[in-house]
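FORM 7B: Structural annotation worksheet

SECTION A. Query
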Amino acid sequence: MGSTLTQIAEQLKNSQKKVQLIYAFNGTGKTRLSKVFKELIAPKADYNEGEALTKIIYYNAFTEDLFSWDNDLENDSELKLKIQPNSFTQWILQEQGQDQNIVTSFQRFSGNKLTPVFNPEFSEVRFSFQHGDNDSLPNIKISKGEESNFIWSIFYTLINQVISVLNVQETTDRETNQFDNLEYIFIDDPVSSLDENHLIELAVNLSQLIKSSNLDVKFILSTHNPLFYNVLYNELGLKSKKGSFMLIKNDDGTFELNEKQGDSNKSFSYHLYLRDTIQKAIENNEIAKYHFVLLRNLYEKTANFLGYSKWSELLPVDGRESYVSRVMTFYSHSSLSSEQIAEPTEPEKQIVRYLFNYLIDNSKFWKQV
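SECTION B. Predicted structure
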């Protein structure tokens, strides 16, 4: 029986783990889960009033609503990103003076030719782009991906500073006691528009930041990106700590948060290798007996990742499951080791084509990759 998002949030809240990592497909409800969790920890708290920061710091798609563009429609010359007044940015910018660290973090992923410049009140920011040796183009509007990167850079600098403050053991020695009651940091899908190299770098940096935390604050991370998930899983050592999950939405609108173990968290690159190898053999009509081995392996890896206890649960339910299972078992784990298995017949090659296409076409995982 499934659960509501509130019940899932309660499950996360009741955990004693320092880090909980959640994978979910787009549209499953992970961003809504972050909102529900925030309301559970700090009901009716609002960043604008500073209440939420006392118990939970969270980043999700709604965090970006604190920022909006003034497009200067009349003159089209004073383009700027406006920052809605809130304690979230007030503390890190005005009180801590971390604007240059934010710029450094932003340029690490966007390049040093694109420069954000805050106004003295930190209520807005303009962007300039340097081209050539000395020329620069002022007051430009950056892309949505670059904007998300910039907002994440502010948030990352915030949690970096918060952890630095809270790592001081004696509360009387801390520069501020504003975060003494902080319980959770919830991060949902930061900067999914980055290329693979920068996404890996971001995941590694975030993992190092979390591991540097000596406090009792718990971290909840959610993502739809397999690569980002995989790097976090490995960097945070969650294989031994059993802190990784998959959020699934059922057809009846309920949800499940299933623990993911073992192979379900191994490198996604091998999944892609299996897929591409089989696909190439099918396209070139070069299916050999070892492709049955690869096909079964692909089913096993996908089933593990999706949380199925048996890979056979992914097979088509159309009356052929028993036959298909026998054929795959025969070619993958031949118990007749003393017999030479002939090359696949044309009907057997058709089975490889059918099962491969069925898996790719009917698995949400492969539609996302």
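SECTION C. Observations
The mean pLDDT is 84. Residues 5-265 form a domain with the Rossmann fold fold (CATH 3.40.50.300).

SECTION D. Sign-off
Analyst initials: ____
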